[in-house]
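Weekly modeling sync, notes
Attendees: AB, CL, MP (scribe)

Item 1: holo prediction request
CL wants a bound-state model with flavin-adenine dinucleotide before deciding which constructs to order. AB pointed out that an apo prediction alone won't tell us much about the pocket. Agreed to run with the ligand included and paste results into these notes for async review.

Input as submitted:
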Amino acid sequence: MAKPEISIEFFPPQTSEGDEKLRATRDKLARLKPAFFSVTYGAGGSTRERTFATVKDIAAQGFEAAPHLSCIGSTRAGIREILADYTAAGIRRIVALRGDLPSGVGDPGEFRYANELVEFIRAETGDRFRIEVAAYPEWHPQARSPQDDLQAFKRKVDAGANSAITQYFYNAEAYLHYVDAVRAMGLDTPIVPGIMPIVSFYKLARFSDACGAEIPRWMRRKFESYGDDTESIRAFGLDVVTALCERLLANGAPGLHFYSMNQSGLTTAICERLKLV
Ligand code: FAD
């Protein structure tokens, strides 16, 4: 079996101190030999400069860097400019997303859905970029139905996406069912599970409600029983997420994409347990 490909996601820091910390984190995570580090893009382009600076910094150290790029609220001219910057910086991979309009912003701009962004990137830059798109094993919260969401995914692939990274989840069945459903549509697109290591249960619970990821009841109850005992939360989270990764890889997941939250500890510990280091 081919060695699973690891990728690791960062968000762009807001301060120069954060930049320094991220460099140290990145250098520790380099041991895992990730295929690429990706860098998120704030809603409506709010981190445009910082995402670009972080991506350039990663690439300058010889690592493959993949900027996320969201299109909602953007113009074609604006996206064209960003693509030109990334081309000039030697970037070869982009995570293409719709994004969400920041609250209070009414103008959706010139793109409605991520497939339109993928189509635009291909029309403007041909095969220069490897394009990753988002996939939702527990379905995107705004999808009218699972069938509609699968069709939306297919449109992104038909528009030229090469592979997908999923929203995080803790139900392995959801991922396995999603992959089967995509294969049943005749697509062989690699679908890499997004893995969220668990640092703080309460933060995770709030975030999961917002993005539509389920924390199964048996896990929630156990986390809640630990109260403020951060050591037990960390240990249980590590066991659960490692077991999830093992199951996904054993069932054919082509790799793992870690939502690192700019920390190296848990991602490294999980990969060590999986013997991926
Ligand atoms: P789309 O694929 O366009 O789908 C959005 C919704 O529209 C879905 O419900 C879909 O079913 C529906 N839909 C699609 N096409 C149609 C159509 N023609 N008619 C009707 N409905 C349709 N957000 C950020 O702001 N910055 C980031 O850096 C970022 N990184 C992410 C990385 C990953 C791996 C993932 C999984 C998500 C990320 N997100 C990020 C969040 C993402 O932007 C949101 O989940 C957003 O709401 C949807 O983006 P999308 O690209 O999946 O949209």
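Recorded for review: The chain has one domain: 5-273.
Action items: CL to compare against the apo run; MP to circulate these notes.
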